[in-house]
Design a protein that fits this description.
about 100 residues; mainly alpha; 3 helices; extended
């Protein structure tokens, strides 16, 4: 299983796993403590930017799929709208790459 380790772009080099984390905050604490690196989607910087943490676009690996999961036993209109928006975008071939756009920041 790939799990976002860019295995197809590693030229046969094995993945070396470091610290295991359960939350985004734990992940960033591990990175800032020099216990690892992480691949993440471009939007993460917008929501989790903090001093001492760098986000560097990786341009030579193929895009990673992003999945959405939701509880179907809960009647949540906002969640339904989000899922429908995601499905609509997916039907158009995905979301445009805005990382290099001046609108990104």
């Amino acid at each position: 299983m790939n799990l976002g380790f860019a295995t197809q772009a590693r030229g046969g080099q094995p993945v070396r796993l470091g610290t295991q984390v359960a939350t985004v905050d734990e992940c960033f604490e591990a990175i800032m403590g020099e216990r690892g690196i992480a691949f993440t989607q471009a939007s993460t910087q917008r929501f989790y930017d903090r001093p001492g943490l760098s986000f560097i676009p990786v341009r030579d690996v193929p895009p990673s799929p992003l999945s959405i999961a939701w509880r179907t036993d809960v009647n949540d209109g906002l969640a339904r709208e989000f899922v429908e928006t995601a499905r609509t975008l997916a039907s158009f071939g995905g979301v445009p790459n805005l990382v290099d756009s001046p609108l990104w920041l």
